[in-house]
Amino acid sequence: MISSDSSAQTEDAAIEGLRGLAALVVVAVHFAPLVTPAGGPWGFAASGVDLFFVLSGFVFAPYFFGRRLAWAPHLVRRAFRLYPLYLTALAVYVLLKLPDPAATRHLAEHVFMLHTLRSPEVAFFYNGAFWSLPPEVEFYLALPLAAGLLRGRGFGMLFAAALGLHLALVALADGAQPASPASIATIHLPGLLVEFCLGAAAWQLAREGGARRLRMLAGLLVLAVMLWLYSTYIAEDPARAQFTAHWLAGNVGVGAACGYALVVSALAGRPNPSGWRLRLCLLGGQLSYGVYLFHNALLQMRVKYGWPIDGWVAVACCLLATLALAWVLHHAIEAPARDFGRNLSRRLAPARLA
């Protein structure tokens, strides 16, 4: 856990701040129905998940380009980073389902990250935001293999293969059959690896330096175009130009990831700010996972317990409660578990990699 600005200098404040932004963008898409009719351009805020995938690819990019990776310490670190807070969140959502006898119906599938392999009903049974965790886990599992095979060479071929596989799956996926094999694969690593690769490409661009402002403007332009396409062809009239809408819907995440990758490459690696801006960025990164996991719990509590709040008051109350809960659980569970995992991984690491 980072406890002071001096030790915080080892973190990239831009990346941590973008984690916090990604979580808030996802919160926006789920809180928006409290203040605006369902649907519409707000749905594009779901692309905050794509920003998370890009950031994961960015953070682990050195292993695509030659850095050695010991698989056992890596998986230990990832397990203690991901699972303790996730299992806590899962327990909260199970409790919110009680006393419904079906409260534990899909618990085992969620514990083992298998909840997105059957149907949307299973995937979204507890918390819709849980759908993005299986591809993240799959990326962690595949990373040692990819790092060992590439050994700093052939990343371009991996990127091209990932993009081709994504496009093929989108073409084969049937929007009317969300449980078809191709549709399921689009929300797992086969369909999403290209977004992690975009994050790795952003890392390489950031190392090259130069033209930061141009990359920033290009990234924002790409995001603006994707928002316009989404609003015009999907959010406003999904039935119009059905194939076009299906094609755009299947690729809007990759399009957004392209824009995010350019923005990340422009922001990353710059000197960290100081004072409150540094603390705010680091706080955003620290709370991002908890905010992502628990924000829907506040919406469920509002309905279950009949909280007499609505509109912007409900948004403000639920957001503040989510931030407070994320802060408490970060210090009580997330940070201690992460530190334990790091210490354990050091004991498992070969001496030459420690």
Summarize the structure.
The chain is mainly alpha-helical and 354 residues long. It is built from 15 helices and no strands. The model is unreliable at 1-9 (pLDDT under 50).
Task: Write up this protein.
The protein is an all-alpha fold and 354 residues long. 72% of the residues lie in helices and 0% in strands. Helix 3 (48-59) crosses helix 13 and helix 11 (189-208) packs parallel to helix 13. The longest helix is centred in the last third of the chain and has 38 residues, at 311-348. It starts with a helix and ends in a 6-residue tail after the last helix. Mean pLDDT is 87; it is low at 1-9.
Which descriptors would you attach to this protein?
354 residues, globular
Distance between the termini: 19 Å
Instruction: Please state the structural category.
Output: mainly alpha
| Low-confidence residue ranges | 1-9
Q: Over the alpha carbons, how many angstroms does the gyration radius reach?
A: 20 Å
- Please bin the fraction of helical residues: over 70%
What is the string of SSEs from the N terminus onward? HHHHHHHHHHHHHHH
| Number of E strands | 0
Mean pLDDT: 87
Oligomer: single chain
Distinct helical segment count: 15
Q: Which strand-content bin applies to the residues?
A: under 5%
State the shape: globular
Largest sheet: none
